[in-house]
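writing this on my phone so excuse typos. first protein, seq and then structure
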Amino acid sequence: MLKLFPEIAAGLHVPRYARVLAVADAPKDGGTCERFRPRYAVDIEVLTPEGEPDPAYPTYEAVPLPVPVGCGQEAGLFGFPQTGSLVVVEFAYGRPDHPLIRQVYPLGLSLPQLRAGELRWMQGEAVHQSADADGNWTRETDMAITDASRDRLITAVQKMETVAREIRRVTENSTERVDGVKRIEALGALRLLSAGSARLSSGDSLSLTTARDMGSTVGQDAKAVVGRNVTLDVRGDVTEQVAGDVAESVGGNQVETVTGDLVTTVGGDSSEIITGHKIMTAQNLVWEFGGSMRFGSGTVSLLHLMLDVWEHVRDALHVLADHTHQGGAVPKPDQSGEVHGHAEAVGEDRGKLEGITG
C-alpha cells in the first residue's frame, strides 16, 4: 500500500499548518500568475502539531495563495497575509513539488472587535470597512479614499457630511435641483465668483438682508425693471454722485417732502416747463439774481410793463410840477420841488428794475 501511495508514507495527504515567512514576489505592476512564478504567493515553513518548525520539510518559497472571491482575469479579492500568520498547506496530487495554501487562520494574532452577525474587512486598526447586524455600512481610514467612475448615482433619504475643508471642481456643467428648501450657512464668509455671467432668479419673493454694510459695484451698465411699486426707507443720509447726465421721467404724480432745508445748486442753466399750474406757498420768498430776470407770458413781460408804468408816473409827476393854467400867468405850485423829487425817486427805482430786467 505504501509503495502504491508514497504520499501516504510521506504524510503529504494530510493538511498541515505552516507559518508565513515573507511575501515572495508581490505583483506591484501586475503580471501573470504562473506555476514557476505565481507572484501572488508567500514563503512558508511547515510546522509540527506543537507549532514548531518541522525539520522534515524544507522552507517553501512562492507558495500560491487562494483567491476567496471572484477569481478571474485581473479580478478577485486579493490580500497578502502578514508575516507570522498561520496557513493550512496541502500538496496537490500528493507531490511535494506542488504545495499550495488552502486557508489562512488568525491563530496567534490579535483580533478586531466583532459581534455576531457583523462583517468586517480590515487592513489595520484605523482602516476598515464593516457591516453590522442591522445592515449599517461603515468605511473608515486615517489616510485617503479615492473613488473613480464614469457615472455615480447616490440615493438616500438623508445625507450628512462633515469635513474640515472642501474643494470641488466640475470641469463641465453642474445642475442642482432641490424640491424643498435649500439653506446655506457660512459662519465666516460667503463668496460667489463667476468668470462669465451670473443670474439669481426667484419664482416668488427674493430678499437680501445684511446686519452691516452692503456694497454694489458695476463695471458697465446697470438696469433695473420693477413691475409694480418701489419703497425705499433710508434712516440715515443719502449721497448720490453722477458724473454724467441724469434723466428722470414720472408718468403720474410726484410728491417730495423735506422736513428740513432744501438746497439746489446748478452750475449751468436750469429750465422748468410746466404745462399746467404751479403754486408756491412760502412764509417768506426771496429771489436773488446775479444778472437779469423776466416774468411774462409769450411776448408780454411783467417787468417791462412795470417799467412803462413807472416811466409814465415819472413823466406825469414832472408835468404836474411844472403845469400851467389858461387865462394868465399862474405861479408854480408850492409843492413843485417835492413833486419833482418824487419823480426823480420813481426814475431811480425804474433804473434799478431796468438793470435786472431780461
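second protein below, same order as before
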Amino acid sequence: MINIQKYNLQVIKESGGRYDLSRTIRSAAAARDVFIEVLNLDKRAEEVFAMITLDVKSKITGVFEVSIGSLSGALVTPREVFKRAILTNSKALIFAHNHPSGEPEPSADDISITKKLVKSGKIIGIDVFDHLILGNENDNYISLKSEGYID
C-alpha cells in the first residue's frame, strides 16, 4: 500500500470592488484604466508586474499582481503568469508593469519577457493581447503591441 495525495485546485477571490470601468477591454487605454484604477499601478514605488485575464468575449475575469519587485525590476516567469490564467479559465491576457522612474520606454528585458510570454501562450492556447508599460502620469504609457513587439 502507498499513500497518494489527492489535490483540488480552487481560485479564492482576495477582494473585490465596484469600479466605473468597462467590463470589456477593447483598447490599450481601457486596459490602462483598469490597471490604474484597481491596482494604482501608476503610483507604485516599486516595479509591479500585473495582468488582466479575459474570457472569450474579452470581458474581465480577473486582475492579478503577478510579481512585486524593486525599484528597477520584478521577476516574471511564464509559470507564474499562466498558472493564474489557467485557474481563471482565461482565453486572453493583457500585461502591464510600471517603471517607477516615470519613463515608460521598454528595456531589453521587457521586450524579452514579452516575447517569451507570447510564445508560451501560443503553446497552451492563451492569447497575449498586449503588454503596457506605465510611467507615473495617467497618459504616460507605451503599448508593446502598438510598438510592434506583439503580433
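The domain at 30-137 is CATH 3.40.140.10 (Cytidine Deaminase; domain 2). thats all i got for now
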